[in-house]
Amino acid sequence: MKQRIITGVVAAALFLPIVYYSGIPLVLLTYFLATIGLYELYKMKNLNLFSGHGLLSVLFLWALLFPEKYMHVLDTFYYSKTELCIVFILLLLAYTVITKNRFTFEDVSFTILSALYVGIGFYFFFETRVDGGLVYILYSLFMIWATDSGAYFIGKALGKRKLWPEISPNKTVEGSIGGVVCAVVVAVLFVLFTDIKGSIIGITVILSVFGQIGDLVESAFKRHFNVKDSGKILPGHGGILDRFDSLLFVWPLLHLFHLW
Asked: Has residue 8 got a pLDDT over 80?
């Protein structure tokens, strides 16, 4: 627990100032976190990111992450983000021929879906900060922290019925409901003390549920690949995906709900 607290404090001290400042530092942070997330997925499947197909997968991810704010840079080359992504997908498929099927169609499918999973989530991390402002980033962080903490502590105290034992045997229905309740409390506080819209209270229930689904998705990955944590970059916490799994589902939904 002590190690978790120290890591959390240090990470927050590095993370929050960059989020507050935004701009290019936030873009670089987004690219860094997403690339580490892709590396963790590659490692789970025993694929080497430091390879030809690994380089293509990183470039595909980076194309996905390219912020809307800087799209004019691509316009000067007469290419869109979609066109770049198509090129990298075709190159990944061609790589199966170059390697004589040592890098298989299944590996291509895993690579593309992994890049989409990580890339879409972190892309909307940056877009949330730009379009929604700092308040929506803080809301998403505190809402998910409240969901996780509420689910853990209420599950420990009151949990009896298993939520999804095949995926995550320690999670309970009571804990899940408790997490949603704690998230709603956070939403109420944000409505009272910030200029965030009142409609967020109802939407928080959906976001909290999908945040928990994001957590279960990551648990399903780890169970499938028989690993305990996605990585070791955050001592006491695991990897980047272990910390951002819920938020990778929440940030895109914030945009889909058109909250700003």
From this structure: no
